[in-house]
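In this notation, each integer encodes one residue's backbone shape. One such record reads:

___
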Amino acid sequence: MPEIRKPQLVEATMAVINEVGLSGASVTLISKKAGVSSGIIHHYFGGKHGLLEETMRTVLRKLSAASIAHLQAVEPNDVMARVKAIVAANFDGYQVEGKVVKTWLAFWAQAMHDQDLHRLQRVNERRLLSHLRFELKHILPAEQAAFVAQGIAALIDGIWLRGALNPEGISADYAQKLVADYLEKQLAPYLG
């Protein structure tokens, strides 16, 4: 697939999912939105499933890049700031755009029934938990770090779900405040 076409098709996929949902997002609609023939989608991606997988890989790459950027902006020894940076990346501008949020929601729903998408979701989940545990273990016992990491991940997912279903979308600031409140309460006994 020519690299210039991939972003075009990914954007078209998200736009169509945003407009009609995953079940209504046909290869024909996506190809029209992208200005390409549906044969190109079938040839390079094998159809809608492959295109959804590539779309989510793109979204996850952007999430990873945002995480790196947010982490590079804080001190390596400031655990609270580093965990907040990881959370902030999950609510980064691109990640909370309406079309991206609806694509995430469609992906999660489909991942329950599709082995390839489920694997992709598991990789994303493990990466988030691993990053959180790594930072939290600097000040928490390993078992407590794992517990707090699970709590933060659950808050992120819950805020995402509520935001995806809310006509006003996700408030990144409010989301980060909620998670920060939980984090501060969990870390308070260990920070003195």
